[in-house]
Write a structure and sequence with these properties.
The complex is a heterodimer of chains A (678) and B (72).
Chain A lengths: L6 E9 L3 H11 L3 E2 L10 E2 L6 H18 L16 H42 L12 E7 L15 E5 L2 E7 L3 H8 L5 E2 L9 H52 L5 E2 L3 E9 L3 H9 L5 E6 L18 H4 L2 H7 L10 H16 L2 H17 L4 H25 L1 E2 L2 E2 L12 H5 L14 H31 L3 H26 L10 H7 L11 E4 L2 E4 H18 L3 H14 L1 H21 L6 H7 L8 H38 L24
Antiparallel strand pairs in A: 1-9, 1-10, 2-9, 3-8, 4-6, 4-7, 5-6, 8-9, 11-12, 13-14
Helix pairs in contact in A: 2-3, 2-5, 3-5, 9-11, 9-18, 9-20, 10-11, 13-14, 13-17, 13-18, 14-16, 18-20
Chain B lengths: L1 H37 L4 H9 L2 H15 L4
Helix pairs in contact in B: 1-2, 1-3
Classes of the chains: A alpha+beta (678), B mainly alpha (72).
């Protein structure tokens, strides 16, 4: 679970006549991650595609053009179809049918757009009601026709001889050629925009009517053609998609030799496969005459560039967290795969930050429903499943640690006994005293101390895993992890003693103090220490940090003492657990306090604790609607910020202690996502 | 008087660290979105860099809270 699947290198060699059957077997196996052959010399070259590759790719091109014409992606109703053996024949027939329709459609579309232009150009002349031939054939006259924004007046001043035909928004001016330029300039004042006189003779209104009826005729024809194409789409969409799938598989197989090494009469396939499945592969390929399979388990002696691919092997719930690891980087083949840690720690941190039983339940339900509905976007489904597990912890922490449901605590804070609480609302004292109250001052301090504890546990795991990763590679780097662990425990000892001080410990010791600070298991840390101002740093702490730095100096170099400060910053970073928890609780409480007066009589509730509903039912309904919306918002924002913060603690504070990533994901020959499989 | 000053200190601490965080995230966020436009795979890294400056406001939050404990 903590290591990627062990890989074995396989070499398959055989005579050329076995190439095609061998490709078929490999493809069916879906187990071999091919290593592309590079480097050529006189004898060994890159293989040539199978003979059928050219034909298959031609068919694929035709099919894609059909898919494009049919617009198969938009097909809603589909008749099931199974591509038959003679794909080629089917594609040709479909193409012939479709090409005719497609050409007719294009013709119609171009006719219609020509007519549209003609209608547009005739329209102004239809308004003027003068036959079209009137505008043409003069030698001494200039005809200016165009659209205007206002009526033309005062033309006589520019051109005393003129003839004007005007209609609504259109004007035609007949003037002697000599004064045409002046008139043109004059007309611009009225927003004159010239139009060309269209072809044809006779009444423009009749011509317009003829063009419009033509257009109607052609667009009816176009609808008929679209209908026929639509029928073809419904009938063949599924066939086209399936056939595309089949052809893509064919072409992948046919072009596979490009990744192999080949000589004149033989070929060699190089690849990796999971060690546990080598026997299956041997058996599958053994039947091919003359084909030899050689396998050698990965012995870590390879060059970095030659590293085996990484197959993460998780099952069930942990598998859902793989995307979080991959989002950061694919693990490299020789390091611990952190997915299992994410599975444990991400929901834990998420739950600590949400810490509300009501939100927890909603997240569990939403996570479950969305992750099972959204099958076609697996990443989002995984995310929802992760939220579900986070919701489980949010519920547990909400019930057990914080005692809070939808922002309302079980009991009011000690400082403010009239605050809203479930005990008061229900009129029943909940017989459970949760260890941490988010709205009490000491509750927040407890949370801060808890964050420190979380940081030590989380970072220690990081250093231990880092040690395990490095021990086989570089003893010096492994030793530095031990040094860091000493510094970490030293810093923790300081916080442990600080947590016992009167300033921070609750008057009545509560769980966090009890568990971690002034009781076992940490009571053995001696409090005696060096006084620095008002702060006391335990000798124990100083000793551990000094030992740690002594280990770090030879392993990490002279800057190590400075780096210890950054470790302190890492520990402080975990206070976000407390920060988000308190902030989210406070926002929920604020909404509750603002909106509850709509539902119940607040004054009466605060003074006597009695619950009396608002006399106006409309206000009660409004109150519930607003409270629902407010909580939905707090829930969504809370889920977003808690998941970002939880993943950040893992990516930044945790992963940087041990995780390098940069591996290649195992993608075996033959495994491809099929469009139709969903 | 002392209480009042402490309370002011709490406010200044939190406000200052929050502004600092916002300032830093503004720059990081813009750059992260830019990088994501080039290569969508950088989303994960982008998110991580984006929330890095939040540590500043967390320090502010922790300090403010410890100070708040001193208000009588």
């Amino acid at each position: 679970m903590l290591r990627p699947e062990p890989m074995t290198r396989v070499l398959v060699a055989g005579p050329k006549d076995q190439l095609e059957p061998m490709i078929e077997s490999l493809y069916a196996l879906k187990l071999v991650h091919l290593v592309d052959h590079h480097g050529e010399d006189d004898v060994i070259t890159i293989g040539k595609p199978l003979a059928k590759a050219a034909e298959v790719s031609e068919q694929l091109v035709r099919l894609r053009s059909i898919a494009n014409i049919l617009n198969v992606a938009e097909a809603k109703e589909q008749e099931p179809a199974e591509p038959t053996a003679d794909l080629r024949q089917q594609i040709v027939t479909l193409e012939v049918n479709l090409r005719e329709e497609d050409e007719a459609r294009k013709r119609m579309e171009s006719l219609i757009s020509d007519l549209d232009r003609r209608i547009e150009s005739l329209r102004p002349f239809a308004i003027l009601r003068v036959p079209l031939e009137t505008y043409r054939g003069y030698t001494s006259l200039e005809v200016l026709v165009g659209r205007v924004t206002e009526d033309v007046i005062g033309l006589e001043a520019v051109a005393p001889e003129n003839e004007v035909v005007a209609g609504e928004g259109v004007v035609a001016v007949f003037v002697p050629t000599a004064s045409a330029d002046k008139v043109r300039e004059f007309l611009t004042k009225f927003g004159f925009a010239p139009v060309d006189v269209p072809q044809g003779e006779g009444s423009p209104a009749n011509l317009l009517a003829a063009a419009e009826s033509d257009r109607q005729k052609w667009s009816d024809r176009l609808v008929e053609i679209e209908d026929r194409i639509g029928t073809l789409r419904a009938k063949y969409a599924q066939f086209v998609m399936k056939a595309e799938d089949v052809l893509e598989v064919e072409i992948e197989k046919a072009e596979a030799p490009l990744r192999f090494a080949a000589s004149e009469h033989s070929f060699v396939v190089d690849g990796w496969m999971p060690s546990s499945r080598v026997d299956d592969a041997m058996r599958a390929l053994a039947g091919l005459p003359g084909v030899l399979v050689e396998s050698m388990p990965d012995d870590e002696s390879h060059e970095e560039a030659d590293a085996p691919p990484v197959l993460l092997k998780h099952k069930g719930a942990v598998k859902r967290f793989e995307f979080l690891t991959k989002l950061y980087s694919t693990p490299s083949h020789d390091e611990v795969d952190p997915t299992a840690f994410l599975f444990l720690l991400f929901p834990l941190f998420f739950g600590l930050m949400i810490g509300d039983a009501g939100y927890g339940i909603v997240m569990i339900i939403l996570g479950f429903v969305l992750s099972s509905k959204l099958k076609d976007s697996p990443d989002f489904a995984d995310l929802m499943r992760v939220i579900l597990y986070g919701g489980v912890f949010a519920y547990i922490f909400g019930m057990v640690l914080y005692g809070e449901i939808f922002g309302i605590p079980f009991h009011p804070p000690v400082e403010n006994p009239h605050e809203l609480s479930w005990s008061a609302l229900l009129g029943y004292y909940i017989p459970y005293e949760p260890p941490i109250h988010k709205l009490e001052a000491f509750g927040v301090i407890d949370l801060l101390l808890l964050s420190v504890v979380a940081s030590v546990i989380h970072l220690s795991i990081g250093y231990v895993v880092g040690f395990v990763n490095e021990i086989h590679h570089n003893k010096k780097h492994a030793a530095s992890r031990v040094g860091w662990l000493f510094v970490l425990v030293g810093l923790f000892a300081f916080f442990a003693v600080l947590g016992r001080s009167h300033d921070l410990a609750a008057p009545v010791p509560r769980v966090v103090n009890f568990l971690f600070f002034d009781r076992p298991p940490l009571v053995w840390i001696p409090a005696a220490g060096l006084s620095l101002g008002s702060m006391s740093v335990p000798y124990f702490s100083i000793a551990l940090i000094v030992i740690g730095i002594a280990i770090l100096l030879p392993t990490e170099g002279g800057l190590a003492p400075v780096e210890t400060i950054s470790l302190l910053a890492n520990m402080m970073s975990y206070t976000r657990l407390a920060g988000v928890a308190v902030a989210k609780g406070a926002v929920a409480l604020a909404f509750n306090t603002m909106l509850l007066p709509l539902i119940i009589n607040e004054d009466l509730f605060v003074t006597t604790g009695a619950v009396q509903f608002n006399a106006n039912v409309a206000f009660i309904i409004l109150g519930f609607v607003l409270i629902f919306l407010a909580h939905a918002m707090v829930l969504i924002l809370g889920a977003i910020s808690a998941s970002i913060q939880a993943i950040r603690l893992n990516y930044v504070e945790f992963f940087l202690k041990f995780y390098k990533g940069g591996g290649t994901l195992f993608s075996p020959f033959g495994a491809r996502k099929r469009k139709m499989e969903a | 008087m002392a209480d009042g000053l402490t309370a002011m200190a709490v406010a200044v601490t939190l406000a200052g660290s929050a502004i600092a965080t916002a300032w830093a995230e503004k720059a990081v966020g813009a750059a992260a979105v830019g990088a994501m436009a080039e290569n969508e795979k950088l989303f994960g890294r982008g998110i991580v860099f984006m929330v890095l400056p939040e540590t500043i406001v967390l320090f502010g939050f922790a300090m403010a809270f410890l100070l708040l404990g001193k208000v009588g």
